[in-house]
Amino acid sequence: MQKIICQKCTYYFVTWEANQPHGCKAYGFKSKFIPSQVVLSSSGKACSLFEAKTPK
C-alpha cells in the first residue's frame, strides 16, 4: 500500500481554524488530522480520490 501525502494532493487545503487545520475538498470535510488518516480510520480503505498537484 502506497502512503498518501495529502499535502501533494489537489484537494488538500489548509484552513484558518486552529482546531481543524486540515481540509479535503474531494470529501468535503475539515479535520484536526490529515485527511488521508481520517478516511483510512473511518472507512478502513485508503483514499481513492488522491490526485497529484500539477507543477506550475
Short description:
This protein is an alpha+beta fold and 56 residues long. It has a domain at 6-43.
Write the layout of secondary structure elements.
Elements: E1 12-14, E2 22-24, E3 29-31, H1 35-43
Model description:
The chain is 16% helix and 16% strand. By secondary structure, it is of the alpha+beta class. It has a domain at 6-43. Strands 1-2-3 form a three-stranded antiparallel sheet, with no helix packed on it.
Please describe the structure with a list of short key phrases separated by commas or semicolons.
about 55 residues, 3-stranded antiparallel beta sheet, 1 helix, alpha+beta
Helix segment tally: 1
Strand content: 15-25%
The multimeric state of the shown protein is: single chain
Largest sheet: 3 strands, antiparallel
- Strand order across the largest sheet: 1-2-3
Shape, per Cα inertia axes: globular
* SSE ordering: EEEH
Q: What is the first-to-last residue Cα distance?
A: 28 Å
Rg for CA atoms: 11 Å
Low-confidence runs (pLDDT<50, min 5 residues)? none
What's the rounded overall pLDDT mean? 93
Estimated structural class: alpha+beta
